[in-house]
Specification:
alpha/beta; two-stranded antiparallel sheet; binds cytidine-5'-triphosphate; binds calcium ion
Length: 225
C-alpha cells in the first residue's frame, strides 16, 4: 500500500463510518438489497485508524475482515443502521455515510415464508420510505463543528446532481461518483469528485479506494471544530 506522508492528523478524534448496503426483509428468507460491497467504507475506516483516529465502523451486510483496531458494529436494515449511526455519532468529530441505504422497505414483513398459490399472480410488494440518515445527522449535529460527509453515485449531469444533493442533505462534503463503464460496485478502484458546501470541488483520479479515502480525510481535517 503506497501512501503519502500523512501524519497522525486524526489523533484524539472519533470518526464514524458506515459501510455496505442495507437489506430490507420481506419474509424470513428474502430481502430487498443492493450491490454495495462495503470496500470504500472499509478503506475509510482503515485510513482513519492509520491517521490516529478512534474509528467506529457501522457495517451493513459486508463480507470483509474487520480492520485492525476498529470498533465494528454489524447492522442489517436501514432502521438498524440509523440507530447505530445516531448512537455512535453522539460524541463523533466526523461522520461519513459511505453505506448504500435502501430508500424504501417493504410495508409489511411476512412472519412465515411467502408461498406460491396455484394459478394466482403474486401480490405486489408495497414499499414505504426509510429515514434519511444523512439528512438527519446533518440537520441535528450531535456536536458543534461535527463534520458530515455523504456519498452519491450519479448519472447524466453528475456535478449538477451532486450539488443539488449536497444542498438537499445539508452535509459538509459529498463524494460524487459517476456510474458508468468503470463500475464502482465491488471494484477495488474508484474515481470521484468531492464537493464541499463551501463551493470547493476536488477531483480524485481513478485509483485505489484507499487513495479516495485519504483524500476525504484530507478534506475533513481542516473542517474539524
Ligand atoms: N442516505 C442516507 N439515508 C437514506 C438514503 C441515503 O443516509 N435513506 C445517504 C447515503 O448513505 C449517501 C447519501 O445519503 O451518503 C446519498 O445517497 P443517495 O442514494 O445518493 O441519496 P438519495 O437522497 O437517496 O437520492 P436518490 O433519490 O438519488 O437515491
Ligand atoms: Ca437513494
Amino acid at each position: 500500500l503506497v501512501r503519502g506522508a500523512t501524519g497522525p492528523d486524526l489523533e484524539g478524534r472519533h470518526v464514524v463510518v458506515s459501510a455496505g448496503g442495507t437489506r430490507e426483509p420481506l419474509d424470513p428468507v428474502r430481502f430487498l438489497g443492493n450491490r454495495s460491497s462495503g470496500k470504500q467504507g472499509y478503506a475509510l475506516a482503515r485510513t482513519a485508524a492509520a491517521r490516529g483516529a478512534r474509528v467506529t465502523l457501522i457495517a451493513a451486510n459486508t463480507a470483509l475482515p474487520d480492520p485492525a483496531g476498529v470498533d465494528v458494529v454489524p447492522v442489517g436494515t436501514a432502521v438498524q443502521l440509523r440507530e447505530a449511526v445516531l448512537k455512535a455519532a453522539a460524541d463523533a468529530d466526523a461522520v461519513v455515510m459511505a453505506a448504500a441505504v435502501a430508500d424504501f422497505r417493504p410495508a409489511a414483513y411476512a412472519a412465515g415464508k411467502i408461498k406460491k398459490k396455484d394459478g394466482q399472480d403474486p401480490d405486489p410488494i408495497v414499499l414505504v420510505r426509510n429515514p434519511d440518515i444523512l439528512a438527519e445527522i446533518s440537520a441535528e449535529r450531535a456536536r458543534p463543528g461535527q463534520v458530515v460527509v455523504g456519498f452519491a453515485a450519479e448519472t447524466d449531469d453528475v456535478l449538477a446532481n451532486g450539488r443539488a444533493k449536497l444542498a438537499r442533505k445539508g452535509c459538509d462534503l459529498l463524494v460524487v461518483n459517476e456510474v458508468g463503464e468503470r463500475r464502482t460496485f465491488g471494484s477495488e478502484e474508484n474515481e470521484a469528485v468531492v464537493l464541499g458546501a463551501d463551493g470547493s470541488e476536488t477531483p480524485v483520479p481513478y485509483g485505489p479506494k484507499e487513495a479516495l479515502a485519504d483524500t476525504v480525510w484530507d478534506l475533513v481535517v481542516p473542517r474539524l471544530g
